[in-house]
Design brief:
Layout lengths: L1 H21 L6 H9 L6 H12 L7 E2 L6 E2 L2 E2 L2 E2 L3 E2 L5 E2 L5 E2 L9 H6 L1 H4 L21 H14 L8 E5 L1 H13 L8 E5 L6 H9 L4 E6 H7 L7 E6 L16 E5 L18 E5 H4 L8 E5 L2 H15 L4 H14 L5 H23 L4 E3 L5 E3 L4 E3 L5 E6 L7 H7 L2 E2 L1 E2 L9 E5 L4 H24 L1
Parallel strand pairs: 7-19, 9-10, 9-11, 11-12, 12-13
Antiparallel strand pairs: 1-4, 2-3, 5-6, 8-14, 13-14, 15-18, 16-17, 18-21, 20-21
Bound molecules: pyridoxal-5'-phosphate (PLP).
Pyridoxal-5'-phosphate binds next to helix 7.
Cofactor: pyridoxal 5'-phosphate
Organism: Mikania micrantha
Protein name: Alliinase C-terminal domain-containing protein
Length: 460
């Protein structure tokens, strides 16, 4: 009798299984439909597997492995951050120098890792092989529209009725702008200025390109003191917010201006209103942190200036890589999701936290000071906030500490000297946009330095 019951149960169970697996309208409907709707991958699957396999290499959280990284013993090598080493980046070198020198904006890596699925790019072997897009231009209309939308969401620049040109990073557009604004007919070269402390590339590029049409003349204020302001052939870089001190700069001379808005984004500064100048330059590097993608854009009012900037880009590199433009489009589409709130809140919170920790350390020091920050209303976040600049501009207050970079170097902190920015060496710049590991080590070294200052005062 028992055996007979078991047999019936087994038969019923088999029958139910057969019905469920054959009939899509019983229970398994949604699952079956989902499977039948998903196209099977052919050529992209191998690349996706390779990308995911490399991304899965942990590097102990202190480095990254990349698809194009070196291979050792058949395995992609981990590229370790700052002071970490070893095959899996797990070894911290205690004597290592905390590097706060370069403006490498890796601090947003965690955001992009959280959005890996939405920002991954699959590029086929035949993706946009032509120099041009279908409309015979070298710029993606989709990307241009996306950038215009980004500016209108953030409210940091007027783009309606303005021309746009893409460049290989904003660095290229800075020199294209000087070329476009300089006079080709005047007997003397146009004079190029910036206000101290200024981003050194302005001088370096102008000197390097060594043109008959323009010449770097240095600091605006020194020039104004010694010369009557004849504005005709003057080109002034206005960096707002400024690198290195984060100030929202205004022009000093009454000439033509190039507004460098590399840091005019809500993570670094409250946005008081949209910028509406003749020539404004932005960069992906500091907006999303993708410096390696090398992408920037200029927003230009005047048609003749626009055509000259376009000509410069055409002659320099026949337009910007189509692969780059695709990647930038993917990234910016995520940055503007939900009107930019998730992206800018993440980025701002990172910077705010770093500034809070940094100001706490400096508040205990009399030997060092950093720039004062002033609250301002932010139209993007709809509240009054303190700026959270990309760099701390450190001043050594003791008279004998006239080389502040050297003072920090002795405490195993690498910074960028004041003279790099045309300022006194009593100042030095600390980068706050590097990886979390770099920032933690920087903070640790600064805390030790300030602790030593306070203990030595007490012992005196
Ligand atoms: C003020 C300023 N402008 C422009 C740039 C260059 O940026 P990009 O990476 O777009 O060439 C930088 C880079 O640090 C910068 O600080």
């Amino acid at each position: 009798m028992k055996k007979y019951h078991y047999g019936i149960c087994l038969l019923i169970s088999i029958a139910i299984n057969i019905i469920f697996s054959m009939n899509p309208y019983v229970g398994g409907r949604e699952k079956n439909q989902e499977i039948s709707c998903r196209p099977s991958l052919s050529w992209s699957e191998k690349a996706a597997i390779e990308a995911e396999a490399v991304a899965a290499i942990s590097c102990s959280g202190h480095g990254r492995a990349f698809v194009d990284g070196s291979i050792s013993y058949g395995r992609t090598v981990c590229e370790c951050y700052g002071c970490y080493g070893g095959a899996d980046c797990s070894e911290l070198s205690s004597e290592c120098v905390a590097d706060a020198d370069s403006g490498d904006p890796v601090y947003l890596e965690p955001f992009w890792m959280q959005h890996a699925a939405d920002t991954a790019v699959v590029i086929s072997g035949w993706h946009r092989m032509s120099y041009n897009y279908a409309d015979d231009t070298m710029m993606s209309i989709e990307l241009e529209n996306c950038i215009r939308k980004l500016h209108s969401i953030v409210g940091n620049a007027i783009t309606e009725g303005r021309y746009m040109v893409f460049g290989v990073g904003s660095s290229q557009l800075l020199s294209a702008a000087v070329y476009a604004l300089s006079s080709e007919i005047s007997s003397s070269p146009s004079k190029v200025f910036a206000s101290k402390p200024f981003y050194p590339i302005y001088k370096d590029q102008t000197v390097f390109f060594n043109s008959n049409n323009f010449q770097f003349k240095g600091d605006t204020n020194s020039w104004q003191l010694n010369n009557s302001t004849n504005s005709t052939d003057v080109i002034e870089f206005v960096t707002s917010p400024n690198n290195p001190d984060g100030e929202l700069k205004k022009p000093v001379l009454r000439g033509k201006t190039i507004y460098d808005h590399a840091y005019f984004w809500p993570e670094f500064t409250p946005i008081p209103g949209p910028s509406d100048h003749d020539l404004m330059i932005f960069t992906l590097s500091k907006l999303t942190g993708h410096a390696g993608t090398r992408f920037g854009w200029a927003i230009i009012k005047n048609k003749d200036v626009y055509e000259k900037v376009l000509k410069y880009i055409y002659l320099a590199d026949m337009g910007i890589s189509k692969d780059t433009q695709l990647r930038v489009l993917k990234l910016l589409k995520v940055a503007i999701e939900e009107d930019g709130k998730p992206f800018f809140e993440f980025a701002y919170n990172q910077m705010r936290e770093r500034w809070e920790r940094l100001t706490f350390v400096f508040s205990m020091s009399k030997r060092f000071s950093i720039q004062k920050r002033h609250p301002l209303h932010c139209n993007f976040f709809h509240e009054t906030r303190l700026p959270s600049p990309a760099y701390a501009w450190v001043k050594c207050e003791r008279e004998e500490d006239d080389d502040c970079k050297a003072v920090l170097e002795a405490a195993k902190i690498r910074s960028s000297s004041g003279s790099t920015f045309g300022a006194e060496d009593r100042y030095t710049r600390l980068s706050l946009i590097k990886s979390q590991d770099d920032f933690e080590l920087l903070l640790q070294r600064l805390t030790q330095l300030v602790f030593l200052e306070n203990t030595s005062i007490e012992t005196l």
